[in-house]
């Protein structure tokens, strides 16, 4: 049963209701290891599905272009104040629709078309919006890309400095989408100062870890910080841009009217709820457990002969290079999904294979930590992953079916926020 329940949806549109319930059951029955996913609380679900979706609120609190904002303004102000308190920032904008628009707002605030922007190369773990060629950010601006070292799998800070001083970009991004190690914000900040660039920290993947004290914060190092509000932060699908007070006006103007019209008030409310949850003492325990689980899983995979990019992890994310297993990432990911283990295929640094058929797997421990799994279950999870990879090479579907049954049996003992099987 969905929590909150969906009686009207079942009555009005049983086709959609059935698919929603099927998706909920899928999330309940599978070990969800996609690093960008999580389970939100029933409170976040309720806020997301509230009557706030009926309202249009173009502008900012106290400066709207539509009437009837008596309740919306306090909601947005609560979200802003909670973000500022949780992350220790001087300014927060909670209106961006998602992570990519949030990053585009950073460009609009600081750059003109054609200006140089520097970011981690996509195949090395960066994000599309950090200047990659197929993104608007790589078409409208001049990208400068840095890499990780081939011998360590970690960002080559010497290369970052050399490139920054040679190319003099206006904006430098740190952070990305497949970085398993701690981001050295102080080192990036020093390089940005030396190059005369604005430093932007994209913390979309690690925001919850930062909020919970399980990863260093970019505050005091980066002038601007962008993040999604889901992933490790365990909120709705939204985003925020945070900054020093000096850049508050430019950021707000870039979000609205620069890129967006009215914010999604139901999402803003859900962000406020998630930020309140993240400020509770137990959230720090959750963030710490995410990292503990990731490290335990990484160690168990290493013991089974898996090649992990950078040799392990400091956060929630693990990047596996399957080259030495003789299996490509895509068929392995598809087989794992059939076996009840959900993750994604992913390029690894210096990957000789094509992006749509790469050598690696990316996985994260945020969702399984929300379900209550601990280090105790990580060796078994590594064993299942190993069995599936071997079965993929042999095209052995029977192994996948057996593991899927075992996964369902394990997860039946770990409740899922937002849904439970009908008794």
UniProtKB/TrEMBL annotation:
* Source organism of this protein record: Actinomadura rudentiformis
What InterPro entries does the record point to? PyrdxlP-dep_Trfase, PyrdxlP-dep_Trfase_major, PyrdxlP-dep_Trfase_small, Ser_HO-MeTrfase, Ser_HO-MeTrfase-like, Ser_HO-MeTrfase_PLP_BS, SHMT-like_dom
Site features described as Plays an important role in substrate specificity, chain residue numbers: 230
Gene3D superfamilies from the UniProt entry: Aspartate Aminotransferase, domain 1, Type I PLP-dependent aspartate aminotransferase-like (Major domain)
Give the cofactors, semicolon-separated.
Answer: pyridoxal 5'-phosphate
Q: Tell me which NCBIfam families the record gives.
A: PRK00011.1 (NF000586)
Q: Name one Pfam family in it.
A: SHMT
The record's note on quaternary structure and interaction partners says: Homodimer.
> What EC numbers are recorded for this enzyme?
2.1.2.1
Q: Which UniProt keywords apply?
A: Amino-acid biosynthesis, Cytoplasm, Methyltransferase, One-carbon metabolism, Pyridoxal phosphate, Transferase
Q: Where does (6S)-5,6,7,8-tetrahydrofolate bind?
A: 122, 126-128, 246
* Reaction(s) the record says it catalyses: (6R)-5,10-methylene-5,6,7,8-tetrahydrofolate + glycine + H2O = (6S)-5,6,7,8-tetrahydrofolate + L-serine
Subcellular location(s) of the protein = Cytoplasm
Q: Give a short account of what the protein does.
A: Catalyzes the reversible interconversion of serine and glycine with tetrahydrofolate (THF) serving as the one-carbon carrier. This reaction serves as the major source of one-carbon groups required for the biosynthesis of purines, thymidylate, methionine, and other important biomolecules. Also exhibits THF-independent aldolase activity toward beta-hydroxyamino acids, producing glycine and aldehydes, via a retro-aldol mechanism. Thus, is able to catalyze the cleavage of L-allo-threonine.
Lineage of origin: Bacteria, Bacillati, Actinomycetota, Actinomycetes, Streptosporangiales
Q: What is this protein called?
A: Serine hydroxymethyltransferase
Serine hydroxymethyltransferase-like domain span: 9-385
């Amino acid at each position: 049963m969905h929590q909150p329940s969906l009686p009207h949806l079942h009555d009005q549109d049983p086709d959609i209701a059935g698919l929603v319930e099927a998706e909920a059951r899928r999330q309940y029955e599978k070990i969800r290891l996609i690093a960008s996913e999580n389970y939100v609380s029933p409170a976040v679900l309720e806020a997301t599905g509230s009557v706030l979706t009926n309202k249009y609120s173009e502008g900012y609190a106290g400066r709207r272009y539509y009437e009837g904002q008596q309740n919306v303004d306090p909601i947005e102000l609560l979200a802003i104040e909670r973000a500022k308190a949780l992350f220790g920032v001087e300014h927060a904008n909670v209106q961006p629709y998602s992570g990519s628009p949030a990053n585009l707002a950073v460009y609009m605030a600081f750059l003109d078309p054609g200006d140089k922007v520097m970011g981690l190369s996509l195949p090395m773990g960066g994000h599309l919006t950090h200047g990659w060629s197929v993104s608007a950010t790589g078409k409208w601006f001049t990208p400068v890309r840095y890499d990780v070292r081939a011998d360590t799998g970690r960002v080559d800070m010497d290369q970052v400095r050399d490139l920054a001083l040679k190319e003099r970009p206006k904006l430098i991004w740190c952070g990305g989408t497949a970085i398993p190690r701690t981001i050295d914000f102080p080192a990036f900040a020093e390089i940005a100062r030396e190059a005369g660039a604005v430093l932007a920290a994209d913390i979309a993947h690690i925001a919850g870890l930062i909020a919970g004290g399980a990863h260093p914060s970019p505050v005091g190092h980066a002038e601007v910080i962008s993040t999604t509000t889901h992933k490790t932060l365990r909120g709705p699908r939204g985003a925020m841009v945070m900054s020093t007070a000096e850049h508050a006006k430019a950021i707000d103007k870039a979000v609205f009217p620069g890129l967006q019209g009215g914010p999604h008030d139901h999402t803003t409310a859900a962000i406020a709820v998630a930020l309140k949850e993240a400020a509770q003492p137990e959230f720090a325990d959750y963030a710490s457990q995410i990292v503990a689980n990731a490290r335990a899983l990484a160690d168990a995979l290493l013991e089974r002969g898996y090649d992990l990019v950078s040799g392990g992890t400091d956060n929630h994310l693990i990047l596996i290079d399957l080259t030495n297993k003789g299996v490509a990432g895509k068929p392995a990911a598809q087989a794992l999904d059939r076996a009840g283990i959900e993750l994604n295929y992913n390029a690894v640094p210096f990957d000789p294979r094509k992006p749509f058929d790469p050598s690696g797997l990316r996985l994260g421990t945020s969702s399984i930590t929300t379900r209550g799994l601990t280090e105790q279950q990580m060796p078994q999870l590594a064993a299942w992953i190993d069995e599936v990879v071997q079965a993929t090479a042999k095209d052995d579907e029977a192994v996948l079916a057996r593991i899927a049954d075992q996964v369902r049996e394990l997860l039946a003992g770990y409740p899922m926020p937002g849904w439970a099987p009908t008794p």
